[in-house]
Description:
The structure is a single chain. By secondary structure, the protein is of the alpha+beta class. It has one domain (20-104). 25% of the residues lie in helices and 25% in strands. It has helices at residues 13-16, 22-38, 98-104, and strands at 43-48, 52-58, 67-72, 82-86, 91-95. The protein has a 5-stranded antiparallel β-sheet with strand order 1-2-3-4-5. A hairpin with a 4-residue loop joins β4 and β5 (91-95). The longest helix is centred in the N-terminal third of the chain and has 17 residues, at 22-38. It is elongated, with a radius of gyration of 17 Å. The termini are far apart.
Amino acid sequence: MKNIKLVVNNDLKKEKEKFFIKKELQCILNLYAKMVSNGTWKDYSFSSGLKEISFDVYQRASDRPVLRILKNLKPKYYNEKFLIKDNNGNILKKSENLNQLINKTSWNNLRLVK
């Protein structure tokens, strides 16, 4: 009984930001459905860490992800909240708004370079 602590300011907002919210996920999955119907993308997965959550896109299930759409949980700058990275980890595009990032990117020109 001596080790009981009282938490007064329990902030639940931090727990909500640990994944994509519904509108973000809907926007990403709409893009994924469009690219699957084109035959460009084949599979996807989610991965998460302490600083970022990513939607990984694959051309084949056995390969590394071709593209990653990331939500940066602790951005250094305001325009680095959402990122698109290639399979080498290079940042292709970044924005503070996911809808603008997805709509302004020409997805057919982003291809895997060997």
